[in-house]
Structures are given as C-alpha cells and as structure tokens.
Amino acid sequence: MDLAYGPKYRALQEEVRGFVRSHGHLSPRTGGGRKRPDKRALAWQHLLLQHGYFARNIPKEYGGFGLPLDVMELAIIADEFSSAGVSPGIMNQGISMLVPTLLEVGSKEQCAKWVGPTIRGEVIWCQGYSEPGSGSDLAAAKTHARVEDGHFIINGQKIWTSSAHFADMMFLLCRTETEKGKHGGLSYLLVPMSAPGIDVRPLVTMTGRAEFNETFLTDVRVPIDQIVMRRGDGWHVANVTLKYERLLLGDPNKLTYRLARVIELMKKTSLEGVPTIQIPEYRDRLLRIQGEVLASKFHGLRLLSEQAKGEESGVRRLIVKLNGTMIAYRLSSLAVDVLGAAGLPYEPKGEALEDDEATTWQIDNMYDIGLIIGGGSSNIQRNIIGERGLGLPREPTADIKLGPKE
Ligand SMILES: Cc1cc2nc3c(=O)[nH]c(=O)nc-3n(C[C@H](O)[C@H](O)[C@H](O)COP(=O)(O)OP(=O)(O)OC[C@H]3O[C@@H](n4cnc5c(N)ncnc54)[C@H](O)[C@@H]3O)c2cc1C
C-alpha cells in the first residue's frame, strides 16, 4: 500500500508549509475562544480566510473560500498548522457551532446575514442552553417565549453561559409550544445580547476569572423571523449544534497543536540540568499522550471521510468529545508538572497574564477540567455511547415510580 500523498496533495502541503514558514510569526498563541479576538487574532483570521486555510468549504456568498469539501486537503492544512504550533484560526461557539448549524438547517437569509461576520471574528456568539434545573437533561428547559406583535417575548434564566459577558448574540433554546411536550415544545432563537431585558451576571471560576455567566431574560423581544427552522423544531436544531460542539471540545487538531507546544516546553525546561523531555517519567507520560492524540487524529479523519461521503457518524462523534477533553486535561497537567516550581505560584491578574506561558498552562489546566463537564459531561457521553452505540440496556429514567408492588 502506498500511503504517500499524490502530486496534487504534495503541492498543497508545500504551499501550506511555505505559508506557515513565512507568516507563522504573525499567529496568535491560541484560538482565543475565551475572550474577544484582539487585533492580532482578527488580522490572522483575515489572512487565513484570504488564503483558504479557514472556512475553505463555506460558500463564497457567505464569506468562505468556496471550494468543494476535500477531506485530504483539510487534513493536510490542519496537520501543517498544528504540528508547527501555529493557530489554525479562531475557534469559538459562533464559528465552530452556530455557523455549521446555520449551514445545515438555517435559512439562506440567516446564512447570508450571520456566517460572514461570524467567521471573520466580528460577531461573537454565546450558547444559551443550560438552566439551573436542566443541564444534562437539556430538554427540560423552562425558559419560555410567547408570541406577541410579530415578536417572541422571552422570559427565564440560563446558566454557565460562556462568553455572554462579551458576546454580541446568543443562540437560545426555549419553550414555545406548551402543548407539544418536553422535546416537541422547544424552539431555537437568535437573540442580540444588547436587547433590553438581558442581564448578564459573571460567575468567577477557580481560575479567578469570570469565564461563564448567569443570564437572566425578562420580557426580551426578538423579531419572529429570528428562529432557526420552525417553532417546535428547537430540539432538532439544538442537537445539530451539539454535534458540532462535541467536535469543537475534543478537536484532534487542537490536541496536536497543544502536543507540539508541550514538546517545545519539555525541550526548554529542565530538572537538575536534564531537559525534561529526557527524563523517563515525563517522557513516558508524553509518549502515552502522543499515542492517544494520534488515535484521536485518525478517528477525526474517519469522521471527516464519513462526512465527505454523506454518511451519518452517529455516536462515533461522541468519542471525540469524551476522549478529546480527557486527553486535553492530561496534556495540560503534564505541562504544569513539567513547569516545576514555575507551575506552582498562581495569581490571576486579568487577561494580560495570559501572555505568560506558565499562567497560560495553569489556566488551560483548570479550564480543561470544566470541559470534561461542559457540552454534556463524560458520564452522559458514556451513557449515550453505551445505549445507542453498544446497544446496552437503557438506564432507568427518573419518571419510573419506585415503591412497593401492588
Ligand atoms: C466550562 C463550562 C462551560 C460551559 N459553557 C456553557 C455554555 O456556554 N452554554 C450552556 O448552555 N452551558 C454551558 N455549560 C454547562 C454544561 O453544558 C453543563 O454543566 C452540563 O451539561 C452538565 O449539566 P449540569 O451542570 O446541570 O449538571 P447536572 O446535569 O446536574 O449533572 C450533575 C452530575 O450528575 C451527572 N449526571 C446527570 N445525569 C446523569 C445520568 N443520566 N447518568 C449519569 N450521570 C448523570 C453528571 O455527569 C454530573 O456529574 C458549561 C459548563 C462548563 C463546565
């Protein structure tokens, strides 16, 4: 079997490698999903869009590069960027979750209005799903909207809303059809965060910074056409978004990129004069993680091939989220350990400190624990993989009445 790239792909590989060599120094350090993209991130994004290294397959009329999907091309671009430790572009909830959702189930008008500004990093979105009483049981959402004068009037509370404190827009799951039951009564609305009646209260995490929020909605008015699909289709749309969220959270390319950064770190740091990359305990951990990252990468390629063939990957997508978030946590834990004494002191002093490498790894490490829970906890992913993928018996639901037999 010949696994070498043919001439077309070798040419692309050379082209991307050349771009990374000549422009890589302009790359921001991270995908920047946890804050508003700064000037450097926006300029980098612009450059990637211009060269077709970002949004390569999004139609031109929506601001993308307009090429047909070619899995090998995407794999080559991702590989060159991630193994050089160069940012593959902005990854946030708008770009990685809402844009593919709109392209899959949104209207042409919605795509024309939102896709371009979102992929350019100009419009930032947050996800209004979780509520105090509905996290894992998402369909139990109680936030509701009634229709009045051509508007939805929304009332309720969301929680753990990442980025709501700097977002421009929210994609929101709420109850509109009271008579249609738990799943059938939901709708998916696009809500401007500047609308009167939205109150965002930041929640400080163990990083010492506010990364997510409580979001209160009181009589928030949204024009009736700001709905994706139709009233009552919200559960379907929400699941389309979840499908992409799982890929974002466990993204194998992000893992490869971070692995390259850990390897660099292990070459720079030392213990009693020995570079940490040569110390057997650390090296052993690194190699195990490297194996897992490679496995994730090939699993990701399998999903891409299925997508290109129009096949549904089903629960195989959940493995990306489940494994990817666990590997990311082990990677940043290794980085913090390798930093030794420099990895111990931690004093959050706001955004500026993220330029300090030790602090970046510490923040990532604390945040990575959250991502094992966010977007559906590992327990929930295992349940779904077990029940729908492996055909194991379903777990009893809370509705089952336990008590003495009659
Ligand atoms: C860092 C971070 C960012 C987030 N960002 C967002 C966001 O932007 N927007 C948003 O809407 N939400 C966000 N979330 C919320 C996230 O989706 C929820 O935390 C998650 O779905 C779990 O819901 P919960 O917190 O209500 O926990 P619960 O559902 O109350 O679960 C509590 C515990 O019980 C376990 N559990 C629950 N049900 C079962 C079951 N059936 N079987 C086995 N175990 C079970 C869970 O695994 C968990 O350990 C974020 C969360 C985190 C940590």
Helix count equals 12
pLDDT averaged residue by residue: 91
Shape: globular
What is the share of helical residues? 40-55%
Give the DSSP E fraction (strand runs of 2 or more residues). Answer: 5-15%
Q: What's the CATH topology name of the largest domain?
A: Butyryl-CoA Dehydrogenase, subunit A, domain 3
Total individual domains: 3
| C-alpha termini separation | 66 Å
Domain Acyl-CoA dehydrogenase/oxidase C-terminal: 232-389
Domain Acyl-CoA oxidase/dehydrogenase middle: 126-217
Family: Belongs to the acyl-CoA dehydrogenase family.
InterPro entries: Acyl-CoA_Oxase/DH_mid-dom, Acyl-CoA_Oxase/DH_mid-dom_sf, AcylCo_DH-like_C, AcylCo_DH/oxidase_C, AcylCoA_DH/ox_N, AcylCoA_DH/ox_N_sf, AcylCoA_DH/oxidase_NM_dom_sf, Mycobact_Acyl-CoA_DH
